[in-house]
Structure formats: structure tokens, C-alpha cells
Specification:
The chain is an alpha+beta fold. The protein is 13% helix and 30% strand. It is built from three helices and 14 strands. A hairpin with a 2-residue loop joins strand 10 and strand 11. The protein is globular, with a radius of gyration of 20 Å.
Length: 267
Amino acid sequence: MSQGFIKSTQQLSMAAAVGAIAATTLSVNPASAFSITAGGQPIGSPLANEGITTEVPNTIVIDFNDAVDSPFTTVDQVAQNGAMYSPGNALVINNNGALVPTTGAVPYSGPPPAGQVNNTSAYLSLPTNSNQGVGTSVVTITLPKLSNYWGMHWGSMDSTNKIEFLRDDVAFAEFTPDDFAGLGVGPAPGGGNQQNESNNPYMNFFSEDSGEWFNGVRLTQEGNNSGIAFESDNHAYRPVPEPLTILGSGLALGFGAIFKKQQSRRR
């Protein structure tokens, strides 16, 4: 995101429009078992002042909202809800709607209807404290269990933003905003206008194949442009049920079917 956009967003307001930006499923890579959609639920009061969050059930959300009341804090000081963010000095910005110099602006959520305000909640921004706008900046999110879903409000998409999915620290799938043009989101559909709702969607990544369940997510801001950052909010993941839980559910269904057959025979 350019510094010019950062300044221009100081007075921007939030809206629900991007929550329903796209429901189309995108298969980015035919060799990948990921399916990707754009869309989520605006949250907060006034509406959307906490950005957009997931509508997928049975997920665990990290919203960064317990960050201390300071312009900048670090991700190791907020509740990570079972996940682990590294490095711990990655920036969490809690700007209360004010101008944030050099490190990006809040994830924007669409055109300004009357009475709405900026996303005033905290959000994660790359670069990290140790790498503010110089070189590549990376945050790795280690999940407590294998998961088959990841979601996040991706603010002001730039082609230099990248997300990777990892299993036991090995990356096996990666995407940049340029991959999502088929969904009508990202820099290409947005024409490079970072205020456009298509550049600020809630992104949902579903891993359909058990071979591509993941227990890590890596976010990267590449390049040396000090005016560009990777902003995101309302991270969400969905752990895969434990095998015993799945087995137990299967046994219960099996016993239920047997019981129904026995009852029908008695009749």
C-alpha cells in the first residue's frame, strides 16, 4: 500500500458491501486441492468498524482486539487462540482510526455509507518491528492441529503480498493476490485502487484433500518499498476433527442404522 493511500484512508468509512463480494469458488491451481472464495460477515458497531470476519462454522478466530491501547504493539502481546505467531515482534496496529505512518492502513471494507467509520480495531501488519519497510518481512503462524480452512480479512491487496500453507514447516501451496482475479478481487480487478472494495476482501481457503491439510500459514511482504505493507485482520482456522471423533461418529451412525433395521424387522 502506498503512503499516499495511507493518508487518503484516514477519513474513509466502512461498509458491509464487501462482505458479499464473491461466492464463486476458485481453483487456482488444478494440481492443488484448495478451493478459494471471497466473502465474509462485517462485524462491529458501528457496522464493520472491526472489519470483516468469517462466516464458516466451527472456526477459531484471532481478531487482535485485545492489543493494548497504543498505536503499535506486538503480536506476542495479544491472544492467539491456540495459534503461535513468529516472530513475536510482528506489528499489531491499534490506531483507533488515526493515521498510521509507513506501516500501512486499516483493511478497508467498501464504499462509505452515512454514519460508518474506519475499522478502528487492531490488525496485523507486515513489516515487523525489526523490518519496518526494508526488505522482505515474514510472519509464520503455527496452528495447534491440522486444519482444513483458513480465512482472513486481507487489506489493500498488493502483488507483493504472499500467503503460503505449510505442513510440519514445509510449504506446499502459495498464493498472491494476482491469483484471485477470477474471483473479481485483487490488484487487477481493482485497477490498483487500494480503496476499492475488491482490493479488501475476506478470503477463505478450503483444503479439500486430507493430503493438503495444514498446520502452518506463512504471510510474506516482499520487496524494499517502505510504503507497502501486508495488512490483515480476523484470522480464522478450522481444526480437523480428531480421528477418534470421526470414528466415534461413524460407529454411532452404524449402530443407529442397525437399530433401525432391527426395529423395522420387529414390525
